[in-house]
Amino acid sequence: LDTEEFRKQGHMVIDFIADYYQNIEKYPVLSRVEPGYLKKCLPESAPYNPESIQTILQDVKDHIIPGLTHWQSPNFFAYFSSTASTAGFLGEMLITGFNVVGFNWVSSPAATELEHMVMDWLADMLQLPKSFHFSGNGGGVLHGSTCEAIVCTMAAARDQMLSRIGSENLGKLVVYGSDQTHSTLQKATQIVGINPENFRAIKTTKSTGFALSPAMLRLTISSDRAKGLVPLFLCATMGTTATTAIDPLGAVCNVAKDYGMWVHVDAAYAGSACICPEFRHFIDGVEGANSFSFNPHKWLFTAMDCCCLWVENPSALINSLSTNLEYLRNKASDTKQVVDYKNWQIALSRRFRALKLWLVLRSYGVANLRKFIRSHVKIAKIFEGLVRMDNRFEIVVPRNFSLVCFRISLSAIVSDDHYDGEEYNMVNEINCKLLEAINASGSVFMTHAVVGGVYVLRCAVGATLTEEKHIREAWKAVQGQAHTILSACIV
Ligand code: PLP
């Protein structure tokens, strides 16, 4: 590594990225390439001789950028966003620059101690119960994804339970979520060896806003208990992926407590909003949970990847995930006075993720982070208002944060009141066509969900560069496509 060459090439790459952001609105938001396109553009094998950074960047421009869906475009309203920021980016640079592997304290004390500190700062910002703070005998750890966080907590819950009831009862353990819980729960269930037949996705309905019903949960658990099964783990969601539904945390934790279960709260997207006092009430009841996670890479201006997990009993994680390798033995670990994060996660190696979070928190401060979140919510409200003003459309579920779920309504297509199943299907198809047309235009990118059999378009505001003018243009694009589609199909 030649430091002068590094400096020169580093500046070129930064300039390249700055230009990318400057021109980002010129690209179609959703990539238009066909599967296999890249194979046709690049050589079949790695170069034998070195190539210059200029040549490589030219290929990035010509061949990689066309194959990107531009998540950082201000016209990106799909999925949940992955918020970029200068501080998050610079934090990543520092992480990669140092390239330390902080699996235990001694392998890079600053990596462990900063993570410890930042997790307590964030726990304060979210007003998590004292029991989740290190000072309250709990603690936080950074993972790459919610999926990893759930696998680890479920493994901890499994081992805690099996130590009580005997490992021969593994096949009796049952995991609960709702039909809106992220698929990550089912994946975790499979990974930790729970019988796939013992996974319960409890049905939700529009009447409860697609939130988990505590009564249905109790009924399902007691029916399992009657069959001799053992309730193990509940994943409650604060801000579901499809519609940002909010499971009633206090009530579902109370049910779970009656059966001695572990409750994990997944707030992957919406957790970030809870740094604003007006949204904090959505996690009221979290004190009844055993663990809580959210992804700052979704909505807290921290570059991919970053998931914060807190547990009220780190020993449960450590008992389940510890390894004791001779070559990692050291005095600090032997004293048990330090955190060795390798025992809080799946892998041994780990990135210094705390550095980017620390940069984000320090560079913007809580005040600005709240301001950014509120600005996204405000833009989403504007979109919601525009939808409501057009009587061809309807808002399908109430908006909680910065996601608006909407669609062309049945009444815009069918004039009489006697709708049958066929007409419901037709409305779904028309909305599906609408989404395809909007995305094909390249001017915006939105995605969909199907909830309670209803196809909805999701407009998720969250890209860092999105301003009010972008959402107004996005609405015009939706209206334009809707006009064309409806003109062709009114019955
Ligand atoms: N949970 C919720 C509620 C989500 O919305 C998502 C992704 O959007 C996930 C979990 C998946 O998170 P990850 O990709 O970090 O595993």
Automatic annotation (TrEMBL):
The cofactors it requires, by name, are: pyridoxal 5'-phosphate
Q: Which organism is it from?
A: Rosa chinensis
List, alphabetically, the InterPro entries matched.
Aromatic_deC, PyrdxlP-dep_de-COase, PyrdxlP-dep_Trfase, PyrdxlP-dep_Trfase_major, PyrdxlP-dep_Trfase_small
The molecule here is called Putative aromatic-amino-acid transaminase
Question: Which family does the similarity line name?
Answer: Belongs to the group II decarboxylase family.
Instruction: Give the PANTHER family listed for this entry.
Output: GROUP II PYRIDOXAL-5-PHOSPHATE DECARBOXYLASE, TYROSINE DECARBOXYLASE
Q: Which EC class is the enzyme in?
A: transferase
Task: Alphabetically list the UniProt keywords.
Answer: Aminotransferase, Decarboxylase, Lyase, Pyridoxal phosphate, Transferase
Question: Which residues get modified to N6-(pyridoxal phosphate)lysine?
Answer: K298
